[in-house]
Amino acid sequence: QSTPEKLLLNGIKPLIVKAKGHGVRQRCRTDKYGFPKAHASKAKFFRGFQTGDIVKADIPKGKYAGQYTGRIAIRYRPSFMLSLPNQRFDVHPKYLQTIFKADGYEYQVNQ
To answer: Per-residue DSSP letters for 47-93?
Structure first.
């Protein structure tokens, strides 16, 4: 069936998709003069998580107590950065549950 001449778009929220990639091959970061500054980690995953995963965080106590859903950036220490639309903070992986594994894209529903 063909698309009708007149489309009714009331109540439709578009899905915005942004390509984020799966990381970089760069083995060593350099300073502005080209000298080595930091080396890349050996592993792509840490504690079963990967940067870009969409997770549900259930934090029982503290300044950020509550339930959140957002994208994480992993670090090789006991806390990951949880990014929400209006804030970001560190959270321990024991409070996280994976909802969606990273596939190289970022998804957002336009309000």
So the answer is: TTB-TT-EEEEEE-SSTT-EEEEEEEE--SSS-EEEE-SS-EEEE-G
Q: Provide CB contacts within 8 A for 27, sequence distance 6+.
A: 39, 40
Quote the tokens at residue 109. Answer: 């529903």
For 60-70, write each residue's pLDDT tens digit: 999 999 999 99
Domain range list for the chain: 42-109
How do residues 25-82 score in pLDDT, each as one tens digit?
778 889 999 999 888 777 778 888 988 899 999 999 999 999 999 999 888 788 899 9
- Alpha carbons 64 and 76: distance in angstroms, whole number: 21
CATH topology of domain 42-109: SH3 type barrels. (2.30.30)
Beta bridge partners of 15: 109
How many CA atoms lie within 13 Å of 55's alpha carbon, on the beta-carbon side? Answer: 25
Distance CA 19, CA 104 (A): 6
pTM of the model: 0.72
